[in-house]
């Protein structure tokens, strides 16, 4: 009797896994095609708009120099570079000031007022200090090539948009931090819709005046862990937002240590799951269903037809993950990331569980500061993460 009951549970689980895995595979292919980067010719412009590259830095000695060097190597002719020190406890201010000779402008962080997270307040301060027609918000761990900023501006003009963001490519795919990295960009892609487009905090670019004149701008989402997602959603309604998957040709990448990725996942996964216990439970069950077929297969309780079914689901999940990895990770290294796939899926379950627990116990932090990911204006809860 017990054997029959366990076998029934396995069949029901395989049925649910079929639904979840098929949906994820379809959404993966849709997202990769929908947001594919298509190079455009960079037009000659005798008076190109000024771009203010705005970077918020807090305890970033390990990466800030490389970030600024890459920005300074850009071939875009009119750049303004502003870096705000957000209360660093290391030598970050000295690193910023050491680039003053290259035109990098140092901005001292201010006390964070009520209703703000540190990074969001830093971005609002930078937006008010910037003088460029466009603002390029850039994380310190982002990587750029010489032509990247020029191509981003060309993309905005060619597609007649006020804002874009880029899913960054892992240029260091051979490192353990990339092989075993989190899948937060993957979830942003596969959960996207016409009303809720994907977005990326690593790099997003927006017309400055459009940002400052938005009905709901950064001040309305001062305590949100994903303010760029809310802004993208507003502009998407006016068909004024564009999202790209980074490629080698575009040259927008990211190099992020594993522990930093884990902290980001703890901060984002519960909000991505809807900031709701029920939705988080559905997300957790979906991940378990993705991981279930290979586990069930190893129990050897299936008949040949059912075994083929389990093998097929395992391959489908693997191939959809492979398609995403091949498009978003540099060579060499993506082969090792594919081999780590079973571990990565189990890791995602653990990251989501910790995210749920931290939000339940109010122990989520961002750069050492406590987080409560709710918009400042409570009337905007309907479009919160």
Describe this structure in words.
With 385 residues, the chain is an alpha/beta fold. The chain has two domains: 134 residues, no CATH class; 223 residues, Spore Coat Polysaccharide Biosynthesis Protein SpsA, Chain A (Alpha-Beta Complex), CATH 3.90.550.10. It contains 14 helices and twelve strands. The protein has a seven-stranded mixed beta sheet with strand order 3-2-1-4-8-6-9. The protein has a three-stranded mixed beta sheet with strand order 5-10-7. Strands 11-12 form a two-stranded antiparallel ribbon. α10 packs across α14. The longest helix is centred in the N-terminal third of the chain and has 33 residues. The chain is globular. The N and C termini lie far apart (45 Å). 43% of the residues are buried.
Q: Could you give me the name of the CATH homologous superfamily of the largest domain? A: Spore Coat Polysaccharide Biosynthesis Protein SpsA, Chain A
Instruction: Output the CATH topology of the largest domain.
Output: Spore Coat Polysaccharide Biosynthesis Protein SpsA, Chain A
Provide the succession of SSEs.
HEHEHEHEEHEEHHEHHEEHHHHHEE
Quantity of strands, as a count: 12
CATH class of the largest domain: Alpha Beta
Q: Termini separation (Å)?
A: 45 Å
* Contiguous runs where pLDDT drops below 50 for at least 5 residues: 373-385
Broad shape: globular
Q: Report the β-strand fraction as a percent range.
A: 5-15%
**Which CATH architecture of the largest domain is right?**
Alpha-Beta Complex
Largest sheet: 7 strands, mixed
The helix-and-strand class reads alpha/beta
Strand order of the largest sheet: 3-2-1-4-8-6-9
């Amino acid at each position: 009797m017990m054997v029959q009951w366990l076998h029934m549970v396995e069949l029901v689980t395989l049925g649910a896994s079929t639904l979840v895995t098929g949906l994820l595979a379809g959404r993966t292919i849709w997202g990769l095609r929908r947001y594919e980067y298509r190079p455009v010719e960079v037009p000659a412009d005798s008076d190109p708009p000024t771009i203010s590259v705005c970077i918020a830095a807090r305890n970033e000695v390990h990466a800030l120099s490389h970030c600024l060097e890459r920005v300074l190597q850009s071939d875009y002719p009119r750049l303004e570079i502003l870096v705000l020190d957000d209360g660093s406890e290391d030598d970050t201010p000295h690193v910023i000031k050491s680039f003053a000779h290259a035109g990098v402008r140092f901005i001292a962080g201010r006390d964070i007022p009520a209703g703000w997270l540190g990074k969001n307040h830093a971005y609002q301060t930078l937006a008010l200090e910037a003088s460029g027609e466009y603002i390029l918000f850039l994380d310190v761990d982002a990587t750029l090539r010489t032509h990247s900023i020029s191509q981003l501006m060309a993309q905005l003009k060619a597609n007649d948009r006020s804002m874009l963001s880029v899913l960054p490519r892992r240029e260091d795919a051979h490192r353990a931090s990339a092989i075993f990295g989190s899948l937060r960009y993957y979830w942003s892609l596969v959960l996207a819709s016409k009303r809720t487009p994907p977005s990326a905090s690593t790099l997003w670019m927006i017309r400055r005046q459009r940002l400052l004149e938005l009905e709901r701008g950064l001040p309305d989402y001062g305590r949100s862990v994903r303010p760029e997602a809310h802004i993208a959603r507003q502009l998407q309604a006016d068909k004024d937002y564009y999202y790209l998957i980074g490629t080698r040709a575009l040259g927008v990448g990211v190099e992020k240590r594993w522990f930093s990725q884990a902290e980001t996942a703890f901060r984002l996964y519960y909000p991505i799951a809807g900031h709701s216990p029920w939705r988080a439970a559905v997300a957790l069950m979906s991940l378990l269903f993705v991981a279930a077929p290979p586990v069930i297969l190893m129990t050897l309780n299936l008949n040949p037809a059912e075994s083929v079914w389990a093998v097929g689901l395992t391959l489908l999940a693997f191939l959809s993950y492979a398609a995403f990895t091949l498009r978003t990770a540099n060579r060499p290294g993506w082969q090792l990331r594919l081999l780590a796939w079973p571990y990565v899926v189990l890791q995602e379950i653990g990251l989501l569980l910790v995210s749920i627990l931290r939000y339940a116990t109010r122990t989520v932090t961002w750069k050492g500061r406590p987080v409560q990911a709710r918009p400042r204006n409570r009337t905007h809860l309907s479009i919160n993460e």
